[in-house]
Amino acid sequence: MASTLALLPFFLSQDLTTKEALSGIFGSISLATWVCLLIPQLIENYQNDSADGISLVFLFVWLLGDLTNLAGALWAGLVPTVIALAIYFCIADFVLISQCMYYNNKNARKARRQQSVVSTGSEQEPLLSRRRSSDNTGLPGSHRRTSALSARSVDGSLVKIEEEQISMARTWFNNTISILGVIALGVVGWGIAYQTKVWTPTPEHGDTPQATEVAFGAEVLGYFSAICYLGARIPQILKNHKDRSVEGLAPLFFMLSMMGNTTYGAQILFHSQDREYLLTNLPWLIGSIGTIFEDCIIFVQFHVYNSRKDSDSAVE
Fold it and tell me: Does residue 2 fall inside a structural domain?
């Protein structure tokens, strides 16, 4: 945000008010955030060769929200850039859902093959187990070897915990750098858009009664879209609680989501605090604030379940 404030004096000298500039900058940061939003989870799934951590119900409800958002934009006859962005969101959702379904099917087939191999060799396993146990019983030095192995196991667990902590610290550092990069991208993008007249400040009190009347159905779709965005994270929160794990989820995905909703709400509030304007944008404000609250719950789950994972590793 320091880069945002540093650029304000230059743009304010060009007949822009502080509120107009901040509204435009926050809107541009929000746009850059939404464009980059799904990339961290796509990378996380690819690196893990799995999508077990993310709830498909979450993604399908989110897709429904994006589809109704696109329908509302088309119905309202919004500018082509808004419609193009809504189309991009839907395509990105389809890509992530397709990736998750691919890994789920792939790993399910792999699990069935492994189960088949295990069941084939299970008839010989009890005999082999008895032989191994009888071979070790009463041998001189066997207890000393067991104690040495236990000590080595404890040392290995401590090393593993230390490596996981270093890896987690590196991940959060990289995520912070990514967040700052997205903010810089949004600020620079807004500056270019303003200088090239692609973006111009919108008057607070526009006289558009006809457009408002035509867009009534689009406003209904906007409410439904906001409800979908608000309810989408509930299946993910429940899945995390059931599994007692957030493994497979990309923290940056939810960090970008929180930043996107925060800057989107800031864009609306800095544009105008007029009662009628706020009521018009109320469904999107509610959706943004509610989603931020749900993202906070997921971050609490990240903290709790990762801490529990470290404790379990120490016990082992």
Answer: no
Residue 237, domain extent = 12-114+156-203+211-315
For residues 103-132, average pLDDT: 74
- Between CA 61 and CA 156 the distance in angstroms is 43
The pLDDT, as a whole number, for residue 214 is 46
In a domain, 146, yes or no: no
3-class secondary structure per residue, 94-150 = HHHHHHHHHHHHHHHHHHHHHHHHHHHHCCCHHHHHHHHHHHHCCCCCHHHHHHHHH
235, 58 contact by CB (below 8 A): yes
Q: Domain count for the chain, please give it.
A: 1
In angstroms, the CA 208 to CA 188 distance is 31
Q: Residue 121 domain-assigned?
A: no
> Does the residue 277 lie in any domain?
yes
The predicted structure's pLDDT at residue 166: 75
Residue 204 is given by DSSP the state S
- The whole-angstrom separation of Cα 16 and Cα 24 is 10
Closest CA to 203 of 278, 272, 104, 266: 272
